Amino acid sequence: DARLHPTTELTFPAGFRWGTATAAYQIEGAAGEDGRTPSIWDTFSRTPGKVRNGDTGDIAADHYHRLREDVALMRDLGVTDYRFSVSWPRVQPTGRGPGEQKGLDFYRRLTDELREAGIRPVATLYHWDLPQELEDAGGWPHRDTAERFAEYAALVAGALGDRVAMWTTLNEPWCAAFLGYASGVHAPGRTDPVAALRAAHHLNLAHGRAVRVLRAALPASAEISLTLNLHAVRALSDSEADRDAARRIDALGNRVFLDPVFHGRLPADLVEDTAALTDWSFVRDGDLEVAATPIDSLGINYYSPTVVAAGTSASPSPWPGADRHVRFVPAPGPRTAMDWPVDAQGLYELLTRLRDELPEVPLVITENGAAYDDYADPSGDVHDPERVAYLHAHLAAVHRALADGVDVRGYFLWSLLDNFEWAYGYGKRFGIVHVDFASQRRTPKDSARWYADVIARGGLPQ
Ligand code: PNW
C-alpha cells in the first residue's frame, strides 16, 4: 500500500504474484534415494568434462531433506507463490508404468508445507531431467517420448491435482532441444542438428498432449501454462543482412515454439531455412493442433538480450542451419558472473512484443535473476549489491510494461537458493539465499531482505 510506504516509487497491481523459483535437479540432491533412478543430468554430470569442476547434483542443496527449512525461508520472505519442478525419475523411475509412491510423497509433503505457509504451489513437470531409460530409447528426438510425457503428466496430476494451483508443462524447451541435442552443452550432450529439430517438435507435441491430460484431470480452477526462454533478439544494424540474421534467430529461438503452441503452425521461414537438413516429415497430421491446445498463460524466463549480425558462428552451435548466416555480437555494458549482459530494456521489449502478438495471453515472468559473486562481512552478513541493482532494474521494466497495458500476472525470482547451475556446476550463484555447500547452511543475502521489502510494500522502493 503506497500510503503505508510513502517512499514506494512503483506500485504493482493488487494480486500481483511474487514468487521464487527452483528446479528439482538443481536443489534436491538425494539422487539415489527412495527409488529415484538416474536422469540424463545424472549421466551427463558424471561424465568427465561435461560440467565444470566435475560437479554433480548428487547432493546439491540437499533440499530433499530440508524442505521444511526452505519453505520457512520463503515464509519469511513473504512470497505468495513458489515455483518448483517435479523430478520425473523420482516419481516414475523408468519413465513409464506405475509411479514411485515415496517420490510422490515428497511432493505431497512439500505442497502441504507450502499451503500451511500460505504459499501457492506452482509445479513444473519437466525441468530437463528426462529419465535415462527414455533417453536410451531415443530421447526427445524420438516421438514416443511425447507419449511417455503425457502418461507422466497424468500420474503427477493424479497425485498432486488437489493441491497445485498452477501447472507448467515444460521449462524452456529451447534449452532441452537445442542445448541438449545440437550444441551438446546440456544433457544428453548430443550434437546432431536434425535430432534437435525433431526434439523441438516432440517437445511441442508433448506439451499439447500433457495440456489435454491435465485439463481432463484437474479442477477447473487449475491454471495450465508453458514456460519459454524467449530470446529478445536485436539486429546489430538496420541493414537487410543483419535483420535477416535476427529473423533466423527469432525463428529458431522463439517462433519454433510460439507458432505451434499459439497458432498451430510451423514458421514457414524456419522450414525453408532448414530445408537442407530436414523435410520435417516427423511432423504428422494433427500434431500441430495438439500442440496448440489452449493454455491459460505463458511463462517467460528472461536474463539477457541477444544481439546478432550477418556472419558465421562456430559449430556445433544450438542454431541448426544458421551457422553460416549469423554472428552473435557481445552486447556492450555491464555483465553478470555468467558474462551475460545486464539489459532490462530487453525484458520490456519482449513483454510489449508479446502483448502485440498474443494480446489474449496473460504473461507470467517465471524466471528472472542474476549470478554474482557475493561476499560475507565479518558479522556473517552476505552482501550482493549487483543482484539488488539487477532485480530493481528488471522489476522496473516489468512495471513499465504493466503501465503500457501488458498483462503480467506475476514475477518469480530465480532463484531462492544458490544451486547446481547446470554446465557451470556450483561455481555460479543465482540465489537470494546463500548456501554453504559443505555445511548446507542457508544465509539470506541482502537481496533476500530487499525482495521481502518489495513484496511487503507491493512495489519498488526509491
Ligand atoms: C535457465 N542459455 O537456464 C533455467 O531455467 C534455470 O534452470 C537456470 O538455472 C537459469 O536459467 C540460469 O541459467 C538457462 O544458454 C540456461 O541461453 C542457459 C541458457 C538459458 C537459460
Rg estimate, integer Å: 21 Å
Strand content: 15-25%
Number of helices: 15
Tell me the number of strands.
17
Low-pLDDT regions: none
Helix content range: 25-40%
State the end-to-end distance: 15 Å
Give the ligands present: 4-nitrophenyl beta-D-glucopyranoside
Q: Which structural class do the helices and strands define?
A: alpha/beta
Q: Main sheet: which strands, in order across?
A: 2-3-4-5-6-8-11-14
Q: Characterize the biggest β-sheet.
A: 8 strands, parallel, barrel
Shape, principal axes of CA atoms: globular
Mean pLDDT: 97
Written account of the structure:
It catalyses: Hydrolysis of terminal, non-reducing beta-D-glucosyl residues with release of beta-D-glucose. InterPro entries: GH, GH_1_N_CS, Glyco_hydro_1, Glyco_hydro_1_AS, Glyco_hydro_1_beta-glucosidase. This protein has 462 residues and is an alpha/beta fold. It is 38% helix and 17% strand. The protein has 15 helices and 17 strands. It has helices at residues 24-27, 40-45, 67-77, 88-91, 101-116, 132-136, 144-160, 173-181, 193-217, 240-263, 268-273, 287-291, 344-357, 385-403, 446-457, and strands at 8-11, 17-21, 81-85, 120-126, 166-171, 223-228, 232-235, 297-301, 305-310, 326-328, 363-368, 375-376, 382-383, 408-414, 433-436, 441-444, 459-461. The protein has an 8-stranded parallel barrel, surrounded by 4 helices. A hairpin with a 5-residue loop joins strand 12 and strand 13 (382-383). Helix 8 (173-181) runs antiparallel to helix 9, helix 9 runs parallel beside helix 10 and helix 13 (344-357) packs parallel to helix 14. The longest helix is centred in the middle third of the chain and has 25 residues, at 193-217. The chain is globular and about 60 Å long. The mean pLDDT is 97. Bound molecules: 4-nitrophenyl beta-D-glucopyranoside (PNW).
